[in-house]
Amino acid sequence: MTKETLVKLSAELEICGKALLKIAEALRSEEKAPAPESPKKEPVPRTLTLEEVRKVAADKSRQGFTEEVRNLIHHYGADKLSSLDPEKYDAFLKDLEVMGHAGNHAVLSASSSYRWLACPPSALECARLPDVQSDFAKQGTEAHALCEYKVKKALGQKGKDPTKSLTYFDEEMAECTDAYAQFVLETLAAAKTTCKDPLVLVEQRLDFSRWVPEGFGTGDCLIVADDTLSVIDYKHGLGVLVEAEKNPQMMCYALGALELFDGICDIQKVSMTIFQPRRENVSTCTLSKEELLQWAETVLKPTAELASRGEGEYKAGDHCRFCKIRATCRKRAEYNLELAKYDFAMPFHPGRYRSGSHPGQSR
Ligand code: SF4
């Protein structure tokens, strides 16, 4: 390497070194300087979607508020939910959510009749508390929406497939709702063997307020054929096996159906069926019109009147399972204590019992 080249190289190295020093200095001063504050983001208000609003509206409809939901849609200046102004979704949803609270709906629903018929004061006790829908209830509501669509489709009626908007949809729900639609078709086919043109109603609002103040509900499927009225109710639940025999919810629905058709059709008997596929349970109870009406006049009506006034006796039992105040109810606590007595047998005391006769000793 020549001397000239070495001088040139050392000059370049010097420039390079100075540049490195500048970079190091700049980095050090950046470390010392406080980090610039990132601009605060304003929380962006979440925009509700039509699907979210529709879901709550469908839940309320399932709970028996179909008419109220329709009226609310009209109140907000639309003839159907899909034409509701999205800017009004928020307010509409708030109104929907309070629908069903005390003072805004029938306290004595058919679905809770098993409880309030056994413990009349529980009706007003529960109505004072807000409704909290469990995931199981939401799953049931969605399964019902699918049932409705499948039955209507099978009957050649129009309907929108709700599958894509369902949160809890799975293969089991698909199979159960298929089975339900099939069952409705089979029941209809059986009705056609005796009646040329049976009438089928799907998701029908049923009013039994003649016996129960503001009593109404929604029947999943009704078939009227000659003198027989069939009421079919789908149950998606798995926890409790539901029997049709002496089932007050079904009897209330049957009364509502009688109100619709009696006088138009010559109905003499009512067949009430629970279709509960996840429990492989199809349970049917048939009553004559007279039996049903007698129960309505002698049991349902007087008890509903007591319940609507918050009167009658508190009575604990299986029905407490679905009571909103079960955790704090004194009557239920006393009942549980009474039951617990039987769980704890007296300790064995030699000589007190003869051999083989003390409690707890099984054969
Ligand atoms: S918990 Fe049972 S006893 Fe108490 S109010 Fe409810 S239904 Fe009646």
Describe the protein in words.
The chain has two domains: 47-99, no CATH class; 107-308, Lambda Exonuclease, Chain A. 46% of the residues lie in helices and 12% in strands. It has helices at 3-32, 50-75, 89-98, 113-118, 122-127, 135-154, 171-192, 248-261, 289-308, 330-343, and strands at 199-207, 216-225, 228-234, 269-276, 281-288. Helix 2 packs across helix 3 (89-98) and helix 6 packs across helix 7. Bound molecules: iron/sulfur cluster (SF4). Iron/sulfur cluster is lined by residues 115, 119, 122, 125, 314-316, 319-320, 323, 325-326, 329, 331-332.
User: Which strand-content bin applies to the residues?
Assistant: 5-15%
Oligomer: single chain
What is the arithmetic mean of pLDDT?
84
- Class computed from helices, strands and strand pairing: alpha+beta
Which molecules other than protein and nucleic acid are bound? iron/sulfur cluster
Q: Could you estimate the helical fraction of the residues in percent?
A: 40-55%
Number of domains: 2
Helix and strand run: HHHHHHHEEEHEEHH
Figure out the total of helices: 10
- Number-wise, the strands total 5
The CATH architecture of the largest domain would be: Alpha-Beta Complex
Please summarize the sheet with the most strands: 5 strands, mixed
Low-confidence stretches: 353-363
How far from one another are the termini? 111 Å
Output the radius of gyration: 33 Å
Strand order of the largest sheet: 1-2-3-4-5
At the fold tier of CATH, the topology name of the largest domain is Lambda Exonuclease, Chain A
**According to CATH, what is the class of the largest domain?**
Alpha Beta
Global shape: elongated
